[in-house]
Amino acid sequence: MYLDVEGEVALEPIELAEALGVKPEAVSVRIGERRISVGFDPRATTAKEVIAACLTRLSVRDLTITEPAIESIVRRIYEGGLSAEESAGSPLS
Fold first, then answer.
1. Strands laid side by side in the 59-64 sheet
2. Calculated CA dihedral for residues 7, 8, 12, 16, nearest 10 degrees
3. For 64-76, b where at least 16 C-beta lie within 10 A, e where not — what string?
4. pLDDT digits (tens, 9 = 90+) for 34-71
């Protein structure tokens, strides 16, 4: 998920994880100049909860939600990097 924000960008993964009540490993945050990329483990939380937590902490102008390509998930399963059970929830991007 990508968030285009206004003003100063300050969102730490640990802060987001605490707000969601999940382990820090369940979220990832990459900060650009005016864009934040947020990844999360759907087995630990939902997109709705992540969006709500971000909206209360940031001045969001636009939101883009992306899903991993099915081809990359299938490739990881066949390469042994992702079990079929793990593929039920998309991995962190």
1. 27-31, 35-40, 2-6, 59-64
2. -30
3. eeeeeeeeebeeb
4. 888 888 888 899 989 999 998 888 888 898 988 878 88
Distance CA 4, CA 36 (A): 7
Lookup: tokens for 58: 């940031």
Please say whether the beta carbons of 5 and 28 come within 8 A: no
Interatomic CA distance for residues 55 and 75, integer angstroms: 34
Share of the chain above pLDDT 90, in %: 8
3-state secondary structure of 61: strand
Q: Average per-residue pLDDT in the chain?
A: 81
Q: What is the pTM of this model?
A: 0.68
CA geometry: angle at 8 spanning 68 and 64, to 5°? 25
Q: For 23, which DSSP code?
A: -
The total of other beta-carbon atoms located within 10 Å of residue 77's CB is: 14
Residue type, 13: P
